[in-house]
Design a protein that fits this description.
single chain, 361 residues, mainly alpha, abc type-2 transporter like fold, 2 domains, four-stranded mixed sheet, 14 helices, 4 strands, 67% helix
Length: 361
């Protein structure tokens, strides 16, 4: 038994040497290791946000009193809005149709007596419309209290734990880490076996003493190293460039990433067993990638999904990784914080690898 194990380890070492040489000799692959993760992180880090930092507002003011002028001055003083004063609702509606303004503020002639204003938001972007209308309503309410010389009965002091400034980037960037590692390693895993088949070397390998398990391990280890490298790279850039803190244990992040890699590589290898060409492997990989990203809770809360989709998300390893990585970055989690998520990633990864191993011929 020890002699058989030693021979197996020697074969595995030779296969691993071959795979790392293939990986590192290709200049395109060296570019893929660094450039795409950084580009995706920068693009998503700046673009993936629900914050509305500026908006164009149409103001239809039928009132000429000081009350309306003070309200307009209070809105302008926030610095978040560009105000376009228009004569009537017809011209304001036309401006919204042309996407020149996102919200219309209409003030009636008898504002001093009626004390009612109307906010009309562009419902084609409901999230932005709600955010803009909510902030405008708050500014108008505070300005009206100041005009009346009144103070609210209760003053609310708000504080957000873990993300004091409610920065969307702090929420999205840990999720971007999961998506980048998930997509990169799954696509690489989906193509490694197919590449051997296209080059005609798969049959040669399988008629050697190399076992199927040794073959799969040799394919998985280099891709796992790519995933770990991207994880550490994105973590460093997230903290150094975007200021997203890693409050948890780095070893817990590495452990969670390794468990995610088991699942992603299992799915990638399973996809490769159904494909005859690298193009087919990429299509099979895309078949898994898009639904799993949507069901992971990266951008859309899982509890807001229909019950059937919530049940389907239980089979998504990326869902559990999102929970773990966001806790590690923002809340200071450890290895002991999420035993259920770690167990589910290990279970789903083991099932995927077992199916891939069984299908490999």
């Amino acid at each position: 038994m020890p002699r058989r194990l030693a021979r197996s380890l020697r074969r595995l070492a030779a296969l691993l040497r071959k795979e790392f040489l293939h990986l590192l000799r290709d200049p395109r692959m060296r570019f893929v290791l660094v450039a795409p993760p950084l580009i995706e992180l920068v693009l998503f880090g700046y673009a993936a946000t629900f914050d509305v930092r500026h908006a164009d507002i149409a103001v239809v003011n039928h009132d000429t009193s000081r009350v309306s002028r003070d309200l307009i001055a209070a809105i302008r003083a926030t610095g978040h809005y560009t105000l376009h004063v228009l004569p009537d609702m017809r011209s304001a509606g036309a401006a919204m149709d042309r996407a020149e303004v996102r919200v219309i503020l209409q003030m009636p002639e008898d504002l001093t007596r009626r004390r009612v204003v109307q906010l009309v938001g562009d419902g084609s972007d409901p999230n932005s419309a709600q955010l803009i209308a909510g902030e405008l309503a708050q500014v108008i309410a505070q300005a009206s209290l100041a005009q009346a010389g009144q103070r609210p009965a209760i003053t609310v002091e708000e504080r957000a734990w873990f993300n004091p400034n409610l920065e969307d980037r702090w929420y999205f960037i840990p999720g971007i880490l999961g998506n980048v590692v998930f997509v990169a390693t799954m696509m690489l895993s989906a193509m490694v076996v197919v590449r051997e088949r296209e080059f005609g070397t798969l049959e040669r390998l399988l008629v050697t003493p190399v076992g199927r398990l040794e073959f799969l391990v040799a394919k998985m280890v280099p891709v796992a190293c790519v995933g770990l490298f991207d994880t550490l790279l994105i973590t460093a850039v997230a903290g150094g460039w975007f200021g997203v803190p890693l409050r948890g244990d780095l070893s817990a992040l590495v452990g969670a990433t390794l468990l995610l890699l088991v699942g992603t590589q299992g799915l990638g290898l399973l996809a490769s067993t159904h494909a005859a060409t690298q193009q087919q492997a990429m299509m099979w990989g895309a078949f898994f990638i898009m639904p799993m990203i949507v069901l992971s809770g990266f951008a859309f809360p899982i509890h807001n999904m229909p019950a059937l989709l919530q049940w389907l998300s239980w089979a998504d390893p990326l869902r559990y990784y999102m929970v773990v990585v966001r806790d590690l970055f923002l809340q200071g989690g450890t290895l002991a914080s999420h035993p259920f998520e770690y167990a589910m990633m290990a279970l789903l990864g083991g099932v995927a690898l077992a199916l891939a191993l069984r299908r490999l011929r």
